[in-house]
Amino acid sequence: MGCWWGSRLLKQGHRVKLLMRNRPPDRARIIVEHNNHQDHFNCDTTQIESAVPPESTTSLLVALKAHNTLDALTSISDLLPYYPVILLMQNGMGVVEQIRHAHPDLPLLIGITNQGAYRVDTLHIVQAGQGETWLGCLPSEAVQTGPDAVEDLVNISPGPVRWDPRILSRQWIKLAVNCVINGLTMVENCRNGQLTLPTYRERITNLCEEIETVMSNYVSSDATLILQQEVLRVAAATRENYSSMLQDAQNGRTTEVEYLNGYLCQRADSLNIAVPENQKLYAEIRTVTATRTAL
Ligand code: KPL
């Protein structure tokens, strides 16, 4: 996702610097492949430990896995006050709470995308389809940031990027979709499209009903009604995809389960809401992960 955003901004003439974990060359090239065509974008890079304070109008876009985000931000904690906007783009929920706890008062924004892109190499991505992206500020934020602070990001095209004043609802719907699709594809070891088969319908209904009950404690009920419909729509729209959780597991990487199914079960627990179907799925995912890791 970092490469995708970087390439879009560079195309529009913005300056982009990639902060990278491993020692990069000073200048590098992002390659974006689409319909068997490659676009190349030169950009500045720096190793994250050597990063220096940015210019005053620079936004920080954090496109890392949920479980790597807090550590990455902490490693540049001296620089964080220099960024007028810090945009977080992770699957799942719980990262904002962790960051708030460790680094209070940062100007955080949330980005949610269904833009399909996968990595074939460092700085080399394949853009799979044209998705949508929403940006917004959580209602709990002390400092409310508005769309003008991210005008350049909102105006990026192609691929619509919109400001959403109800980003929390969208975050919960995305959490629900990822809990169900990523979780079930992980235990069934299948592509997303398989979940549209009637055999999975009852299980999906039960999972969604439980998630709706938890979710309705955080967002208005009109946002919760469409969950099952949304799960099936996304599974069909991404039918050829292997979910990110399954891909992570297949490649021996840490999955985001704790920020998806784990987060959901923990919220349910703190509200004293029974979610047996989701608890069962969460346990199955952990068993499958342990079995695959042990192989
Ligand atoms: O977000 C996804 C993921 O895999 O993490 C979906 C939308 C389920 C696409 O695979």
Write the layout of secondary structure elements.
Elements: H1 2-11, E1 17-20, E2 27-34, E3 37-47, E4 60-62, H2 66-75, E5 86-88, H3 95-102, E6 108-113, E7 117-121, E8 124-127, E9 133-136, H4 151-154, E10 161-163, H5 167-188, H6 201-215, H7 227-237, H8 244-250, H9 261-270, H10 276-294
Parallel strand pairs: 1-3, 2-8, 4-5, 5-6, 9-10
Antiparallel strand pairs: 2-3, 6-9, 7-8
Helix pairs in contact: 2-3, 5-7, 5-8, 5-10, 9-10
Bound molecules: ketopantoate (KPL).
Residues 91, 114, 178, 181-182, 192, 234, 238, 241, 243-244 line the site of ketopantoate.
Brief synopsis:
By secondary structure, this protein is α/β, with parallel strands linked by helices. The chain contains 10 helices and 10 strands.
Describe the structure.
Strands 1-3-2-8-7 form a five-stranded mixed beta sheet, with helices on one face. The protein has 295 residues and is an alpha/beta fold. The mean pLDDT is 88. The protein folds into two domains: 163 residues, Rossmann fold; 127 residues, N-(1-d-carboxylethyl)-l-norvaline Dehydrogenase, domain 2. Strand 7 and strand 8 form a beta hairpin.
Question: Which cofactors or ions or other ligands sit in this model?
Answer: ketopantoate
Do you know the CATH architecture of the largest domain?
3-Layer(aba) Sandwich
Residue-averaged pLDDT, rounded?
88
From the alpha carbons, calculate the radius of gyration and give it in angstroms. Answer: 19 Å
What share of the residues does DSSP label as strand, in percent?
15-25%
* CATH fold field value of the largest domain: Rossmann fold
Unreliable segments (pLDDT under 50, ≥5 consecutive)? none
Helix-strand makeup class? alpha/beta
User: Roughly what percent helix?
Assistant: 25-40%
Task: Name the assembly state.
Answer: single chain
**CATH C-level of the largest domain:** Alpha Beta
Name of the CATH homologous superfamily of the largest domain: NAD(P)-binding Rossmann-like Domain
Total strands: 10
Major sheet details: 5 strands, mixed
Number of helices: 10
What separation lies between the terminal Cα atoms?
A: 30 Å
Shape: globular
What is the domain total for the residues? 2
